[in-house]
Amino acid sequence: MFENMNYIKDMYLNLASNKFSTSSIKALSTQINNLKSLTQLSLDLSDCEIQQAESEALSEGLQKITNLQKLSLNLNNCQLGPKGMSNIGHALQMLTKIQHLQLELKKCNIGSKGGKSIGNGLAKLPFLKHLFLEISQNDIGVDGAKGVCFGLVAVPKLIYLELNLSLNYLSSKGLGYFGEVISKLKNLKVLKIDSDRNMLGPDGTKQFSKQLEKSRNLNKLQLSFRSNGISNATQKLLTDVTEFIQNKTIFFE
User: Fold this and answer.
1) Is the dihedral of CA 217, 223, 229, 230 positive or negative?
2) Is residue 1 part of a domain?
3) Does a structural domain hold residue 100?
4) Across the 253 residues of the chain, what is the mean pLDDT of every consecutive 10-residue run?
5) Tell me, what CATH number does 187's domain have?
6) Which of 195, 181, 243 is CA-nearest to residue 223?
7) Are 241 and 211 in contact (CB under 8 A)?
8) CA 229 to chain centre
9) At what angle do helices 141-152 and 111-122 cross, to 10 degrees?
10) What's this model's pTM, rounded to 2 decimal places?
């Protein structure tokens, strides 16, 4: 499909809601990594039944596009599982020039081990400045949250961070890990977090709020903590925390 098209630098490819065999994914990956000038890639394979074997074929192709600076990969509603996520995480480790990453993994059954694989991948991206990570409905739990944060703390150049963490059984402890790492990202200007339905409980945002106070360089803050059983007192605490950001955009739901 892409033969003799080595001049292409930016590619958008939407293949959502198709059913691919492992050999088809491997062929696609081979075609893409033949584009030696490619620096930006947007690939939508959501609802494509990408599982462990297909993810391995995809990983083998992606990790060879070593000049990529911008990657958008949508695997929403693909049953990757922990091993499939490990394959994708390994590919990320090879793409060390990436500055802009959009990774969509909603409802991929990656679990806590998948969260750790994401973290291992992020930890190898020293130039990353913009990250959008959609990992809702994956049951990563506290251990998975800790794994993701292991990667986040290794990318200090982050300016923009957007996380969808909903329905992952994080609890207040898991959310606290994110608060701790965010406080260490001194270049962060924009922070958006969706942590709905994570069983945070009455005191769910206290630790997170205390850490957030240290993020003095934020220009925009957007937080969503719906359906977590948070008490009115805790909601007020989080509202008070945001007051230190004077003349800046704040959204709290």
Assistant:
1) positive
2) no
3) yes
4) 78 96 93 89 97 95 94 98 98 98 99 98 98 99 98 98 98 94 96 96 81 89 92 59 56 60
5) 3.80.10.10
6) 195
7) no
8) 25
9) 0
10) 0.93
For residue 86, give the nearest of 61, 53, 45 by alpha carbon.
53
Q: What domain count does the chain have?
A: 1
Q: CB of 42 within 8 A of CB of 72?
A: yes
User: CA 209 to CA 176: how far, in whole Å?
Assistant: 9
Q: Residue 56 corresponds to which tokens in the numbers above?
A: 């391995």
| Residue 3 counted as domain residue | no
Distance CA 158, CA 107 (A): 26
Q: How far apart, in whole angstroms, are the C-alpha atoms of residue 108 and residue 78?
A: 5
**151, part of any domain:** yes
Q: Is 51 in a helix, a strand, or coil?
A: coil
Q: 236 — alpha (psi -120 to 50), left (phi > 0) or beta?
A: alpha
Residue ranges making up the domain that contains 30: 10-252
